[in-house]
Design brief:
elongated; 4-stranded antiparallel β-sheet; alpha+beta; Alpha-Beta Plaits; two-stranded antiparallel sheet
């Protein structure tokens, strides 16, 4: 699946807005997507470093219109935690020389609130 097919839309509620300071973003995702698929899609679409992904399957509600009853479809919600302080990666190269690689990650998702 393509990243655009995995992430359907952001979920903007009071509870999800409280998590933004901690780097937690909430998305409606494809029901067949795994946590690894969701993490890769968010990293590719928003250029951030994903630390953790929690998923919840939300059950549909019973709805009624007149005498007819039905059920809304089930859907999947993902709470993605991103790294808010992306640091440089240090390692020892050949000959014991320390090398630093700076990752080009963002520290927030600016497109989340429609900005």
């Amino acid at each position: 699946m393509r990243p655009e097919d995995i992430i359907i839309k952001p979920i903007i509620t009071e509870k999800s807005n409280d998590g933004l300071q901690e780097g937690k973003y909430t998305f409606k995702v494809n029901k067949k997507a795994t946590k690894v698929d969701i993490a890769r899609a968010v990293e590719k679409l928003f250029e951030v470093k994903v630390i953790n992904v929690n998923t919840i399957t939300v059950k549909g509600k019973e709805k009624r219109v007149g005498v007819h009853t039905g059920k809304t479809p089930d859907w999947k919600k993902a709470i993605v935690t991103i790294e808010t302080n992306p640091s440089d990666l240090k390692y020892f190269a050949k000959g014991g020389k320390e090398t630093k690689v700076s990752k080009k990650y963002k520290d927030s998702i600016s497109e989340f609130m429609g900005a």
